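Recall that a protein's primary structure is simply its ordered list of amino acids. Everything else, from secondary elements to tertiary packing, is in principle encoded there. The following example makes that idea concrete.
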Amino acid sequence: SHRDERWAGWLHKGIEGYRVPAPLVGRLGRDGPIPRQIFPVFRDRDELASSTDLPAALRDALAQSSHLIVLCSPAAAQSHWVNEEIMEFKRLGRADRILPLIVDGEPHTATPERECFPAALAFQVDAAGQLTDQRAEPIAADLRPEADGRDNARLKLIAGLLGVSYNDLRQRE
């Protein structure tokens, strides 16, 4: 959600500016050799050209992306576009490449105005690409102070992007 812009900027800089520890560079990760740096990180607000067909432009960008990071907050949970981006990524067969980051709110809460997971993240998609009533159990990094905190949450996301264990990065930090 654009209401989470501050967190998006922080995360964007934190990922693109992260230097992978030298002992991991070139090692085989889940997706091949581990790069020295994670670059570029696409942000729709910054990088989508003006278009008469925003949904098509977003679909193209998602099709070219290896991962989708979802900033989870009550604003994101209520955003039509955030939900649609997650649905599209799942339709591409990449549900296992969605990396949630809780920035505010609560997951799976009985208080709808505090729910942080968009429906497309909280529930599974069927073979036809439609949302089901079967719960998904996303494993989210959580930057809230009472959870992972900023640094650990960022490292968890980076570990997911690189295809290495969080412990590999944490020990090297």
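The mean pLDDT is 89. DSSP finds eight helices and seven strands in the chain.
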